[in-house]
Design brief:
Distance between the termini: 40 Å
Keywords: Membrane, Transmembrane, Transmembrane helix
Pfam families: YuiB
Number of helices: 4
Number of strands: 0
Protein name: YuiB family protein
Structural class: mainly alpha
Length: about 100
């Protein structure tokens, strides 16, 4: 596993989830909706869409993911949480647009 592609992938997922979360926060006027959406919808969809339930258990399936998969997922979650935190700070700073 080379470190440079992993870092690029982590930054890409962080920026992508931060941007999507920021736009959703601006449009829907909710602070933590993108974080909840990531945890409740995206993670189960990714896990269950690739899981062959007839041949392996959930624990064995989660063991097939590599460190790169977990790191990119964590980077995406951090991006979603940071977008909520940024919107919250902007609202506390008096910006009504957010």
């Amino acid at each position: 596993m080379q470190i440079l592609p992993v870092l690029v992938l982590m930054v890409l997922f962080f920026v992508m989830m931060f941007g999507i979360g920021f736009i959703l926060n601006m449009l829907m006027k909710t602070t933590w909706f993108p974080s909840y959406l990531f945890v409740i919808v995206l993670i189960p969809v990714v896990i269950f869409s690739m899981w062959d339930q007839a041949s392996m258990s959930l624990g064995a399936h989660l063991g097939t993911y590599r460190l790169v998969d977990y790191l990119t997922g964590i980077a995406g979650l951090v991006g979603a949480v940071m977008s909520g935190w940024t919107i919250k700070k902007l609202r506390l700073g008096g910006y009504r647009m957010f």
